[in-house]
Each structure stands twice: as C-alpha cells, then as structure tokens.
Amino acid sequence: MSRNDLDPVTLEILWTRLVSAVDEASAAFVRTSFSTLVREANDFAVVLTDKEGRSVAQSSMSIPSFIGTLPATVKHFIRHFPPETLAPGDVLITNDPWMGTGHIHDITVVMPIFRDGSIHGYAAVTSHMPDIGGRLRSSGTREIFEEGLQIPMLKLVRAGVVDDTVVAFISQNVRVPEQTMGDVWGEVAACRMLEGRLNELLDDSGLDLDRLSGEIRGRSEAAMRAAVAALPDGDYRYRLEHDGFEERIVIQNRVEIRGDRVHIDYTGTSEQLPRSVNTVPIYTFAYTAFGVKALLSPDIPNNEGSFLPISTSAPEGTILNPRYPAASGARGMIGHLLPVAFMAALADVLPDRVMAPGSANSSFTMAGEDEGRRYATANFLNAGQGAFADRDGLSVVSFPSNLGNTPIEVIEAGAPVRVLHRAVRPGSGGGGAHRGGDGLDFAFEFVGDTPAVCSFLMTRLKAAPPGLAGGDPGVVGRLTLNGTDIDPADHWILKKGDRVVMQTAGGGGYGKA
C-alpha cells in the first residue's frame, strides 16, 4: 500500500479523530476509576492497536513507558490467545512483568475489537493499581513472590460473561479489593468506549483500520528513519552511575548508528540484583525508545512505525534483562535513567539538543487501618530535571514518566497523615551555564491511632545526578524519620506523632557557568 493513498488533509482529519477516540476512552477511565493513581497521578495509558498488535494511537497523557509496553503486551496476548480463540465480549487480563509493563503493580486489560465478525484491532489499557498484595512496593524486596499477586494471561470476561473465579482470586489477594477491582472495571469501560468510537469512525470514513493504520505507521517510520539517517554513523558511549545498595549500579550503553537504524547495546551494565530495581526487556526498550524519539523526532505521532528503526539489547542476567523470578517493583529507579543516558551518549553530536541527567519521581506507600477502614495509598513526589544547552531544567517534575505530584488534599484523605510542608527545595539543582531544576522538600506527620506500614521509593540519595558539558551535579536527596536518616529500601512502622521528611534530588547543570 502506498503512503500516498490518502491525501494529507484527509489523513490529518482521521488521525485527529483517532486520537480523540482514544482520549475519550481515557476520560472514561478517569471518570470511572476508584484510585487516586488514575485521577491525580496520571499513572495509566490507553492504546489502540491494529489486528497484529501494532500501535496506532495512544491517549494524549499516556505515560511514555506504557506507549512502548502496551503494544508488546497485545502481541503477547495474540500469541497466547490466537484470534480464532476469541469472541466478541472477551476481555483479557495480566500483570506479568515480562509480558506487561515491567512490574506486577500495573494491571493490563486488552479487548479485541470485532467488526463484521472479525477482529480489526485491540483496545488496551494499563494502570498502576492501588494495591496488588504482598509487601508494599520498595526497592528492598528480593524476588517477585514478595511483591504480590501475579496474574497470568487470562480471560477476565468470556463472550460478555465475567469469570467470577478470576475476580475472586484477585479480590482475595489485595488489601483494597473495591478500589483495585474498581480500577480494573474502569479499564474495561475504557476499552468498550474505544471500541464504539473506532467503529463510528470507520463507518463514517468507509475505511478499514488496516489501511488507515498503514498510512499512519508508514509516514511515522519514514520520518524517524530520516531523523536517524541525519546522524553520522558511529558508536557512541555513555556510563551513568546510580545509588545502588552494597555498590553503585552502572548503566553502560553503546549507541550504534548505522544508516537509518539505531541500536542501543547495554553490555557492561550491572548484573541483576536481589532487589526490586531490575528492569525487564520490555521496559528497557520502552524508555530507551522514548529517549530516541524525544531527542531525534519528538513531533511525529507515536505509533509502531516511529519505533521500528530502534532496537535494544542487554545481556541476560543484567539489571536491564533479569531472569525470573527477579523482583522489579522499583524498576523505574533504573528505567528512568535510560532516556538521558541515550541523550548523553550523543552529547558531542547534538550538543544543542541534549539534556543533563536529573532525578525521577519518588513515592511513599502506606497501608493500615483507620477507624475500621482498611486503606492502601501510593503518593508521588517529583524532583529536579536536568538542564538543557539553552535553558534551565524544570523544578519538581517527573521526567521521563509524566506523573503528577499527588495533591496534599488527596494525600491526607487517603491515609491518616497531616502534611507539614511541601515546597521547592531551593539550590538543589546543579549550577552551570544553565541550572538543573530543583527538587522537592516535603514533610508529613502520621496521626493515626493504629500504627501503619510505610515504604518509600527514593532515587539519587547517594549518587548525585551528574552535570553535562561541564555543568555541576545536582544535590542528592534525603529521607529522615524523626530527624534520623533511614534506608528507603526497608519497610517502616509509623506510630502516631512520627514525622517523615522527603527531600528529592535536583537535576544536573549544563555547561560551565
């Protein structure tokens, strides 16, 4: 099929309608969800694929990693449930990290979209759940069995009939089943909304999804290949260190540019750890590909075509390609380093476009009972972005994950805590010709009568985000309980009156001042 089959004006109109359809499904999920992770933190994504599982369009506010993982999950489902085994009204479900989003805390729901008796595409939604059982999410868990419920690739709904057994075993294994299953049913509602809107578009246009998606994917692929081909062939390397545990974690990449293809090889990266910072290949590719696209061709639509010129590899048994049953609940602590590691490798080639490393979001999770009510909450706190060649980095943002800072009112409503202060942490961004963004200074007091368990994910407490091109590093983060530094890899019991201070790191500066 030629990319010239549809004229540009018609294609733009249809593309806009596709995005609107996915965004409407996204809005339906937000309206029907039960947890603040969807409504406030934006920790979800909605994607439309064609019948082969190739991504066509995603919701505008999607998390970058999910844009890369969701289509791969659909393809895994297609292999597990071939089209001939599916029927209208089927809904598929999993949270397998290697098949899904990289950790069990996200549940993915996929629904085949039938038209004239055959599958024309798939609606896919994934979201971080309010709870998945097990130990609360932290970087200290040592294997996946500690992390909670593992849901293999199953049918949640069969030809429109809910599988009550699947619902029962999920509900039995999570702390807040009404919220967790509420979010799952919200995902199903979003898939059904997307099915209806897609069929309306195809009715109006007289096209099938294959023809439309082929046009979109072909144009995006051509644009990305042209962007890669504009770079000089060669091998470019960067080495980035992170906090680690007994010793520092090393991310070593080699960016190989050959014509219109780019391959990122992570040989030399640290071995996998008996901790939850391991990053499975599906997530490694997703955030690497995001970095490639953000640097080389940020304006073209996200779909299968824009990622075809990109490939990644990491030796099995390393932190970017761990063996099962590796824990991966805190995989973002490492995965979020990959976009800036790619950019830094090309700093000499594209010095005016790259950014210095920064610090990604942190979070705290709490579970317990308050006045007879069981609760489980997860709250996100953002940090400093690295500086650019032409501007300062942003303060208190979540790069690259696009998560929102959980509002104070939501934090206090979800658990018995009182927020003492939340402010930008001045001077935490690294100096240079352009400064890194500042981190966050946040403190809360536990006010519940019944003790609760609390866990933390915090990055850059030991290894500061480095500057680039002579810029200064950012200031490392800090975590204290009642004035004493504590290890975020542990779980902590909070009693009434306990006070926690979380200070997130600042981003690295760019260039000499």
From TrEMBL:
A GO cellular component entry from the record: cytosol
Q: Taxonomically, which superkingdom? A: Bacteria
Q: Which residues form the Hydantoinase B/oxoprolinase domain?
A: 7-512
Q: Which GO terms describe its biological process?
A: glutathione metabolic process
Name this polypeptide is given: Hydantoinase B/oxoprolinase family protein
One of the record's GO molecular function terms: 5-oxoprolinase (ATP-hydrolyzing) activity
Give the species this sequence originates from.
Answer: Acuticoccus mangrovi
